[in-house]
Automatic annotation (TrEMBL):
The species this protein was found in: Nonlabens marinus S1-08
Designated name of the protein: histidine kinase
Catalytic activity: ATP + protein L-histidine = ADP + protein N-phospho-L-histidine
GO molecular function, one term: phosphorelay sensor kinase activity
CDD domains the UniProt entry points to: HATPase
Keyword Phosphoprotein tagged: yes
Taxonomic lineage from the root: Bacteria, Pseudomonadati, Bacteroidota, Flavobacteriia, Flavobacteriales
Amino acid sequence: MIVALHPDNEDQRLRSLRNINILDSLPEEKYDHITDLATFICGTKSSAISLVDENRQWFKSIKGMATCETPREVSFCSHAILNPDELMEVQDAKLDERFKSNPLVTDLENPIRYYAGIPIKNSDGMVLGTLCVLDDKPNSLSHDQKIALRNLGRQVQELVKLHVVNEDLRVSRNQLKKHNGLLEDFAGTVSHDMKMPLANLIVTSDILNKKYHGLVDDDGRKYLKYLKSSSLSLSDYITNILAHYESSAYEVDDREDFDLNELLENIIELINIKHHCDIHLPEQNYQLHCNRVALEQIFLNLIGNSIKYNDKEETVIDFGVTETEDLYKFSITDNGRGIPKENLLHIFNLFNTVGEYDRYGNQGHGIGLSTVKQLVENLGGSIHAESVLGESTTFYFSVSK
């Protein structure tokens, strides 16, 4: 037996093999389909997708042989990878000086007499292993069979490239998840730390306005009023940021039974509506089984927006609800100013504002609808809006049962 030499670029080749993170991975049908085809097309007993590691060859897929790896020193593939662009065929291993005393050839129960392998490369041209076919008797592939084996080898290379892309995406996703977690922690900490100084500022501005109201001129009173309104706006902004990042904690499995109309009535009382508003609850009441706290946050935001961004003397809000086997489906329609069509795709983006002021003269922060979307998706649903400018807006959303 002649043990194959190592390729000149062996260190770089091994780094490439290990960087793709495929060694010792679980079997996958997409690779098994190729070995099935190779066996069928070449008319052999066995086939394998072999990756040649430092001291072993490991099989990503193998058909017709009951093993997952063999020592590198006895592998046929360690010879095949020495000629990266050539198909290596051994028609009778017993007649080949390299293999005639190989224990895989001399094995009495399952000998290897025939081998044909095409090297498999990564996108940088590094040889990782082979797609090979094997038999327990001498054989010879036809011209067409060799072409087919080469083509199947190219398919393996494409699968490996796709595997690398998926691995890169997985790593990037995990890193992004980690960074987002750190960002959420930072935003939460900063927001909490800012709330107390802001509360003190608001109280101080009230005290100054009451105690020194008659001692300051109109400009002074205007500045005090501006100080308080700005502080309140910033406090509202921080509250919305906290609500947004805390919304990720709501999960679909935190379910309870509750009455929908009772929930809506409690929300309407909580909002403390300051002008005439006609709200039509669903005619048919529903007993729901889902995350009550998250649904309350969703409706609180949407109802609040319907009232704040309404330019009519009387605000009208209609609720709709249906259900399927898996979902509760809700709609909330108002008779407000509407949303321009070009803005509908962006209204759920965090910090996205359209420059609109509410009926009280305050500009939105672009947090509320992003929070709503995150809550809805956490509950296994989806949300979108339809609007007629100057007439109405309807938000449709669903949550899983």
